[in-house]
Design goal:
The longest helix is centred in the last third of the chain and has 26 residues. The chain has 265 residues and is mainly α.
């Protein structure tokens, strides 16, 4: 199949066979990551197709038999159009796909690029080898839901995070942002995750106050991220919930500006 695809690409584009047969793609030499994670974190994107562009522009460098690297974005897009599924292995109990942003930066990025190349989404699977035995394969939706229940929305988890003060609140915010990264790149998050996160961390006045006292910057980011997720149609907050979120977000912004002002003074 690879030779047949390479010959077809060679005939279509009039290139040599070595170029048509390139199949190892990565960053340019000295670069790392797809920058999809940075785009999600910034919130400065308008259309989800931007993630496909970002991924292929960063990862469209092909490495040949002699180790030479050349930019082959068009070839990468052609290859991605033949992908039927995407998957990621998990081999550490300490890191899940919502713990760090590298997972949606890579797997989410390639899923977005495949969807654009094919014109349709493909299944995304997580192969969990963190336990004993043969491991377990879950869909992306199942894995995100599992991590939401056992980490982000689990009182034992977030209370242990809050025991660490400033950094703990930052970790809660990071988990939420990484979760939204999956919504943005692969659509793998059920709406209830955002609904329960808003009720747990922002709409609960006592919890919101605790977060703000420990880390007002991260607390404000949690509120703004939930509002952003709603505005991007990742969950269906009703008007009352959305208005409550906005008021809470404004209160956190006011607190943050007050703290900033005191520091500046």
């Amino acid at each position: 199949p690879i030779r047949r695809s390479a010959l077809a690409y060679q005939e279509k584009h009039g290139c040599d066979l070595d170029t048509a047969a390139l199949r190892v793609f990565s960053n340019s030499e000295g670069a790392y990551g797809s920058n999809v994670n940075m785009l999600v974190d910034s919130g400065r994107w308008d259309d989800e197709s931007e993630f496909a562009d970002t991924y292929t522009n960063r990862k469209g460098f092909a490495y040949g038999r002699a180790g030479a690297v050349s930019q082959q974005t068009e070839l990468l897009n052609e290859v991605l159009g033949n992908v039927d599924l995407a998957y990621q292995n998990l081999d550490s109990v300490e890191l899940g796909i919502t713990t760090v942003d590298h997972y949606f930066d890579t797997l989410g990025g390639i899923s977005s690029a495949v969807q654009r190349a094919k014109g349709d989404s493909v299944p995304v699977y997580i192969a969990d080898h963190t336990g004993s035995g043969d491991g377990k394969v879950r869909t992306l939706d199942e894995q995100v839901a599992l991590e939401a229940r056992t980490r982000l929305l689990n009182p034992k988890w977030y209370e242990s995070m809050l025991d660490h003060g400033y950094e703990g609140v930052r970790q809660i915010e990071a988990h939420l942002t990484n979760t939204m990264g999956w919504s943005a790149t692969a659509g793998g998050v059920a709406p209830w995750v955002y609904k329960q996160a808003s009720e747990t961390f922002i709409l609960d006045e006592d919890m919101r106050r605790r977060l703000a006292e420990l880390n007002p910057v991260a607390a404000s980011r949690v509120a703004n991220r939930l509002i952003e997720a709603q505005e991007r149609d990742y969950w269906g907050a009703d008007e009352e919930q959305l208005e409550a979120l906005r008021r809470a977000g404004e209160d956190l912004e006011d607190l943050l500006e007050g703290i900033t002002g005191e520091v500046a003074a």
